[in-house]
Amino acid sequence: MGKLATGRASSKSSKLLDEFNASLMFDKKLYAEDIEGSIAHASMLQAQDIISQRELHQIIGGLAQVKKEIEESSFVFDIADEDIHMAIEKRLTEIIGDAGKKLHTARSRNDQVALDFRLYVQKNSKNLEKLILKLIETLLDIADANSSTLLPGFTHLQHAQPINFGYHMLAYVAMFQRDILRFSDSFKRNNFSPLGCAALAGTPYKIDRDYTAKKLGFDAPTVNCLDTVSDRDFALEILFNISTLMTHISRLCEELVLWSSSEFGFISLSDEYSTSSSIMPQKKNPDVPELLRGKTGRVYGNLISLLTVLKGLPLAYNKDMQEDKEGVFDSVETATISLRILNEAMATMSVHIDVMENGCKVGHLSATDLADYLVRECDMAFRDAYKITGAIVAQAEKSGIDLSEMSLEELKVADSRINENVLEFLNLRNSMNARASYGGTSIKSTKDQIKYFKKWIENYDV
Which terminus of the chain, N or C, has fewer Cβ atoms within 10 Å? Predict the structure, then answer.
């Protein structure tokens, strides 16, 4: 059987054009969505008496065989068929004859590809939500086990204030929660069916778009056909959502790389998720977080690429839009494996509690607490307290000790109003627990946040 879509052409297209024009070698990934959409379309055609019951049974049976052949790798993909839609329809017609030629009634490849692609995006948005949820659960387990583990909090990558490691993990839980909600919002906004829009202006056949929308799990059909066949906002949204997700993954991975270095030594990644050097046998390289950090740039590129393709296109469909899928496929696959391997790497890493807590004795992390003490206990203006605290820190550095280790006598040299209560303020664990305001780092606040996120997960319906 020759090409199905030859139309007015009087001569055979060149092999070079076939190679340049075809999308089959990548859009064949949409075979399941294409068959699902075709079954819904054929069912609607029969319900509207456009095809017979017998023809519907033939079409459904033939599509089931096509799907089986594809999944068993016996289906012959011919680049001359251009795309997965034509390849399936051609094979269907070979199997069932003339009934297969009726499947495309009241349909165009324009609404067909918009449907297939949207189904793919919607399905994978939900899959990514589930994977992010698993990662959140792992991070919550780590947070729960480390809500009293002291860790230096950083600003500008400089030691700032004592926090706990569980609290630090919860910061990423909050990021990934936003990622889930972003995917969820996009799913709701894009859960409308393109099927029945035909080329750009609808169809003269008396079709039932509500029927097919419901059958395919959409909330309703799209409102304007001209917009629908040229709309790829749903593809841009999943690319943006993945890019933001990977930004958060990359930030966590940057910290994993730092924390696993000898200079920090806060964590160790398991041997299962680390690699060795080809020449230095002692090396244990954090390849997983490094690769995840690198793959973030890859998904950014896919987003920018599609934005650039779409920015100057007139309505409605243009062949440029064939460039919409590969980047989305790549980003979805990248995000999927990234979430899976990051979850495993986090679940199997070791936390070095003593090293983290010793790290809090570097950088005078309780300096802010000393300034607050001077304001509250010695009735000083904050700027005066700030200046005195700076002088005490300078003295601690000169003595080669941390502020939290200074004696009362050493502290009183700076101001005679300082009394023994100051030692409680300078205690690192007390400093951490003093920050008990809503969203703060105290153990109680950390545990409250863990409860909040766990309750949210229990009530969240993917």
Answer: N
